[in-house]
Design a protein that fits this description.
Keywords: Hydrolase, Protease, Serine protease
Structural class: alpha/beta
Protein name: S8 family serine peptidase
Helix content: 10-25%
Shape: globular
Organism: Streptacidiphilus alkalitolerans
Family: Belongs to the peptidase S8 family.
Number of strands: 17
Distance between the termini: 40 Å
Pfam families: Peptidase_S8
Length: about 500
């Protein structure tokens, strides 16, 4: 039975349930053998974009006493490990645009909360939990779900009759899932995941060795990417989960490393890998750690935004549509808001920094230009109480589910080891949009990512802002739903 709650209580409750999927593991960052202290990781961005900027970035690292561990020639950026006042020294180099630490503590003791509510993730040892993770509800609040046996669930029905239709044309569409890893041994995903296009970017360096893209069961929320992939392209005829675009190919790109974070270098590596391996759509159901929002007046956060922005732009120029989750904080992204959970990789016992922010501070990658930022709706089509929103900040809405409603009102999808789980969150809504984009890409083989976005926006069902929800009865629908609720037209694929 669905529990009824007021809008206010739903928002209060969402502040707690958001971290159900964020049970975190800690670990050490790499040690710089050339220094006497533990290293931090830095993104060093040359003024000149592209391969021509790479020599300047590498030279700046060397002269500032750091060590280049990964080059990203596509965007004139390198990943460096260093200690001490490396950033200040490297920023003085004339050909360097930005330098920023991608983490705040050499001993990482926190992790990321991927945008899912109610993920039955394994709990880490108490000593490894961050302050945010201590607010998590018990993991058994959302029990494993039953095999749906190929049935069209409420979320597919909401998207129209073309959702979940199998077509040979989808085999030519690659959707990159940048996430915690994907279990390609799951029977619903064996035919979907393309090993030749999959890799791990968990260290910031691409690793395409067999199985590197699979989740690490020792890391909290490691099943998240498998769940997202099932929503997009689950495909086992007569059984299992039926995805929005069954038959589409999944490029599984694992971002989540042993410390349970989605750091800037993981994102940069992931976007570049996906773009260079033919992704038409790139799904991003997470936000970049360690800062929930990255602000331009902070040199570290600004550098990460610049590097990730270049990587996203590179993927867009290669023809990919980037889709992101709007977030589960119940906040207006178009207004002032508070971030009291960052940085989430701080040393145990250190409190978070409470920041009052404006629209200049953005979530990565959802706040970047050209990215489709997606809000979540419940089964009745109303904005989910946990979902972020904001006029001019979000583009589409899609099924995200109700974390209080159990498997009947959450979204049931795949879980590592051949199982199933019922999750709710903007992670799920973003995955629905990525699946819809894959269908449109199959219908329009020559379309660019920007053109796919326009198709989805044009075909979305406009929604009015209902009374009794965030913002009151006078709230314009665009603030909640963007162009509207994503829907696939009835035209059949061939």
């Amino acid at each position: 039975m669905r529990r009824t709650t007021s809008a206010g209580s739903r928002l209060t409750r969402s502040a707690v349930v958001l971290v159900l999927a964020a049970l975190l593991l800690g670990g050490e960052v790499p040690f710089d053998s050339g220094a006497s202290a533990l290293s931090l990781s830095y993104l060093v961005v040359a003024r000149e974009d592209g391969p021509a900027g790479l020599p300047a970035a590498e030279l700046a690292v060397q002269q500032a006493g750091g060590r280049v561990v990964q080059a990203y020639p596509q965007i004139g950026t390198v990943l460096a490990y260093a200690a001490g006042d490396f950033a200040a020294r490297a920023r003085r180099a004339p050909d360097i645009l930005a330098v920023g630490a991608t983490r705040t503590a050499p001993m990482s003791d926190g992790g990321s909360d991927a945008e899912a509510v109610g993920a039955p993730a394994p709990a880490p040892p108490p000593a490894a939990r961050s302050a945010a993770a201590q607010d998590a509800l018990p993991g058994d609040d959302t029990p494993p779900a039953a095999d749906p046996h190929g049935a069209r669930q409420w979320n597919l029905k909401m998207m129209g009759p073309a959702a979940g239709v199998r077509s040979p044309a989808l085999r030519d569409v690659v959707v990159a899932v940048l996430d915690s890893g994907v279990d390609d041994t799951h029977p619903d995903l064996r035919s979907a995941v393309d090993p030749a296009r999959s890799a791990s970017c968990a260290t910031g360096s691409p690793d395409s060795s067999p199985g590197a893209w699979r989740p690490d069961p020792k890391v909290g929320e490691s099943g998240h990417g498998t769940h997202v992939s099932g929503i997009i392209a689950g495909n086992r005829s007569g059984d299992g989960v039926l995805g929005v675009a069954p038959g589409a190919r999944i490029a599984a790109v694992r971002l989540l490393g042993a410390v349970g974070q989605y750091y800037g270098e993981n994102l940069v590596c992931g976007f570049l890998w996906a773009a260079d391996h033919g992704a038409r759509v790139i799904n991003d159901s997470y936000f970049a750690d360690p800062w929930k929002y990255n602000c331009p007046d902070n040199p570290d956060q600004a550098a990460v935004t610049t590097a990730v922005g270049r990587a996203v732009r590179y993927a867009q120029h290669k023809g990919a549509l980037v889709v992101a989750s709007a977030g589960n904080d119940g906040q207006d992204l178009d207004g002032p808001r508070t971030d009291d959970r960052s940085p989430n990789d701080r040393v145990a016992g250190v409190p978070p920094v409470s920041r009052r922010l404006g629209t200049e501070c953005i979530r990565l990658p959802g706040g970047l230009p050209g990215v489709l930022d997606v809000t979540a709706v419940d089964q009745d089509g109303s904005l989910a109480g946990y979902s972020n929103w904001g006029r001019g900040q979000v583009q589409l809405a899609a099924p995200g589910g109700d974390p209080d409603g159990g498997p009947a009102q959450a979204v049931v999808s795949d879980w590592p080891g051949g199982g199933y789980a019922a999750l709710a969150g903007t992670s799920m809504s973003a995955a629905h949009v990525s699946g819809a984009a894959a269908v449109e890409a199959a219908r329009h083989p020559g379309a660019t990512g920007a053109q796919l976005a326009r198709l989805l926006e044009r075909e979305a069902v406009p929604e009015d802002c209902p009374s009794g929800h965030v913002g009151g009865s006078g709230c314009p629908g665009a603030a909640y739903y963007g162009y509207g609720l994503v829907e696939l037209p009835t035209k059949a694929l061939k």
